[in-house]
Design brief:
Shape: flat
Strand order of the largest sheet: 2-3-5-1-4
Helix content: 55-70%
Distance between the termini: 203 Å
Strand content: 15-25%
Radius of gyration: 48 Å
Structural class: alpha+beta
Order of helices and strands: HEHEEHEHHEHH
Largest sheet: 5 strands, mixed
Length: about 280
């Protein structure tokens, strides 16, 4: 009986030990598992984790300053229709013509336009003008980044203005006439530099805000028509040239009349002397 009792007691102790150690093993296995981060976490959470979500640094973007220019040259069948189309494009893109010239040479008649276009409408203007043009003899588009130059001028301008303020403060405290005159001279020099840099900035701003586009379109003249026009113009030029040459000759004769008179008198005496010798 005693042996049976001790055997049952030993089995009971082993079972209780196994039950008490099970929770510890389970806790160890759970602690070893890494939980994934919460998906879909929004900025509207009440208690955001400052460690898990560090603040994002936002970089301050500098506005680029770009000067855009373009040169276009193409052939057309009708100068008037092409000009009307370009004029519509100018109005729709809020552009303006600053130079308009036309002319004629031996083989073509042409028209040149220089247009100022707001920079934000530059690409659209080029696309609108290109409609209906089958081939460009010249199509140059350039973009110059002047951001660094703009920043440098702005920084120098601020420095000069601060220096001017310091000199003005010193001028208020100056007592001697010599000091006042010297300070005023320095202020005048600084003011000239400030105005020069302000002028450069305005010039850059104007070139950045408005792009310059040069458009040349021409029409080829028939060969026979060109010969007729050229021949007639040559005849008329020859007549005018002959008239002007005759006028110049008469004027030159009038301007040397004393020499003409002397020459005539000299010729008369020589001729008279020759006649006397023949008689002798």
């Amino acid at each position: 009986m005693r042996q049976l009792f001790f055997l049952l007691l030993f089995v009971f102790i082993l079972s209780s030990c196994s039950k008490s150690s099970a929770p510890n093993e389970e806790n160890i296995s759970i602690a070893a598992v890494k939980l994934p981060p919460k998906a879909g976490a929004s900025s509207g959470d009440k208690d955001p984790d400052p460690v898990a979500a560090p603040p994002v640094k936002v970089k301050q973007e500098i506005e680029q300053k770009i000067i855009k220019e373009a040169t276009l040259r193409f052939e057309t069948d009708n100068l008037e229709n092409t000009f009307n189309q370009i004029q519509k494009t100018i109005l729709s893109n809020k552009a303006r013509i600053i130079n308009d010239s036309e002319g004629k040479d031996y083989g073509t008649v042409f028209r040149n336009l220089t247009v100022k276009v707001p920079s934000q409408n530059f690409d659209r203007f080029i696309n609108d003008v290109s409609k209906g043009v089958s081939y460009f003899e010249v199509k140059n588009i350039s973009a110059e980044d002047v951001t660094e130059q703009f920043i440098d001028l702005t920084s120098r301008l601020k420095t000069k203005k601060k220096l001017e303020e310091r000199y003005l403060e010193i001028l208020k405290k100056a007592n001697k006439v010599s000091e006042i005159l010297e300070i005023e001279q320095q202020i005048s020099t600084i003011r000239e530099e400030i105005e020069a840099k302000e002028g450069q900035l305005k010039y850059l701003e104007s070139r950045v805000s408005e792009s310059t586009i040069t458009i040349e379109f021409y029409k080829t003249i028939a060969e026979k028509e060109g010969i007729k026009i050229s021949y007639g113009s040559k005849l008329w030029n020859a007549v005018k040239s002959g008239f002007f040459s005759l006028s110049d000759f008469l004027i030159s004769l009038i301007s040397v009349w004393p020499f003409v008179i002397l020459f005539c008198v000299f010729a008369y005496f020589i001729r008279k002397r020759l006649k006397r010798r023949k008689k002798e």
